[in-house]
Amino acid sequence: MTQSGKQTQEFRAEVRKVLNILTHSLYTNREIFLRELVSNASDALDKLRFRINRGDKPIAPDLPLEIRIDIDKDKKLLTIADTGIGMSAEELAENLGTIAKSGSEEFLAQLDSAAPADGGDAEADKPDAANIVGRFGIGFYSVFMVAEKVEVVSRPAFGDNSAVHVWTSDGLGAYSIETGEEGALQRGTVVRAWLRDDAAEFLEKFRVESAVRNHSAFMPFPILLDGSRVNSEPALWLEPKFSVKKEQYAAFYKTLTYDAKEPLDVLHLSVDAPVQFNALLFIPDSAQDFFGMDRDFWGIDLYARRVLIQRRNKDMIPEYLAFLKGVTDTEDLPLNISRETLQENVLLRKINQVIVKQTLNHLEKLAGNDQEKYLRFWRLHGKIFKLGYHDFPNRERVAALLRFNSSALNDGDALSGLDEYMARAPEGQKTFWYVSAPNREAARLNPHTERFRVKGIEVLYLYEPVDEFVMEGLGKYKEWDFKPVENAPDDALSAFGDKQEQPQGTPLSEEEREQFTLLLERMREILGDRVKEVRISGRLEDSPSVLVSPDGSMTSSMEKLLKVMHKDDTLPVKILEVNQAHPLLRSMLRIFRADPRDAMLELMTQVLFDASLLLDGFIKEPQALASHVNDLLTETASLYAEVRKA
Ligand code: ADP
Ligand code: MG
User: How many domains does the chain have?
Assistant: First the structure.
């Protein structure tokens, strides 16, 4: 880019795509373009103040740091000016001509999920601009939702070359940059937007004022609309707690997060030791997807004596508290600290420790005083919070705050903690038993849980893959250990009496037992190397059979996870355990005694195995399974018809 003359440049493809969507989709909440332009102006002022605090001297040093919005109705012109850091010609091209690739991709992905499928024109069906703009480094372009032409005049605050440049575009295919007049502005940036007819509302002062109050009330710099100041909110986090109203917290939260909902909870901290800081931290009332879209969208805004040092700083909270939104402000940090050295800063680590402690205190109190609210917190943020099992010094406290569904609860939505589990357990139990399953029904049908039901021993139901890592990571809680039910040794529950009447069936005679052993051998022969062994089970009550892992170490859900990770689609070779008291096995024994090589016996063994595999969560050859079942049905149907003399 040369310094003089007019240069016209095509927008990059991804910018064109985004612009096209912004100008042609009918958005609700178009007013957020003001939020974006004001926040850019505020960022520019923040950057300038940061440099000044470091000792750098800007041009026009006496200009106040402020944002001016002016309306010219006749020209249909809206102007947003700041006296901030400004942009050179290169920066104009770089910042207003491209989008970080990841930003535009995520924007488009989000749009897909937000857009109505049938293009219906009801107001409620229009995509909401507030939710999709501003998150992906495309905030500036939102001005084209309302403008047919935009001019950005800018003059850098630092550097040898502080010439004025003008960026112009109609938001279609291209933009141009040319040198502007020396006297056009003293410092900073002016955005001029010529509004489309359908956006004339933003030429009304009250309309602009309400939008600015709505979205930008807490901007740390004066915002002047046609000469008079419209924002006057104090830095709430520095106010004494008792003087802040609930509505003020909510308003601040909304401008901070763009969340339309009120926060679920607020922590307002004022700390003097071991480090001085004030913090305003919010627990949102909506969930974020920290394992997808929002992977990097967390952190706490860091201020030093009301000067913004860094947005979304990730050193002040551990990842498992990523659901927290808010700001901290400290007097102990030099204003001229470089963002690079922030990371090694001991101070931030201390702030981190205090925030962890205070947040855990807060959650413990909530869990004790307002269970319902705590469970709401857990349902929204438990997924990320449970990763706190990593936090060794605080492990025990995090563990106490975990919530699970379990066999002792009445339905799939109910939750309880480890302490409640311990309180319900019979004398002598020192283990938290758990089973992984996709849902409650599957957990209850898991054959491994049967004898726990008979003995009345509670089993925790883990519905998320990460839960098993949490259990293994915790190792122990209050001296109790965690074990998956499928790894329970045969005598694990022998100390506990039956809670449920069990039909035992007639015991097998000596001779029948010998025959049963031979039946097991025959079944093994039929299944070949698909099983490691066929043996009598000590864990079954209702089910005829179950698959168990040979070494008893890895749970089948963990094994599945590893297989997925290694793209291994082979079936695991396990031990088939059968319930010798089950009527099916008793009948099979009779068939075996009549003829060890009976074809029906073979078919039944196949289906029994297939069913066990299915219950273990594997289905690899549905055709083979269906054909075995059909053969079996054909045989039994003909026999049954015979019996019914149909
Ligand atoms: P984001 O603010 O998320 O980076 P935007 O699309 O809002 O994305 O702005 C893109 C970039 O353009 C900003 O990062 C900033 O570098 C630059 N920019 C926009 N407005 C201004 C301004 N008023 N003063 C200085 N730089 C600006
Ligand atoms: Mg922006």
Answer: 4
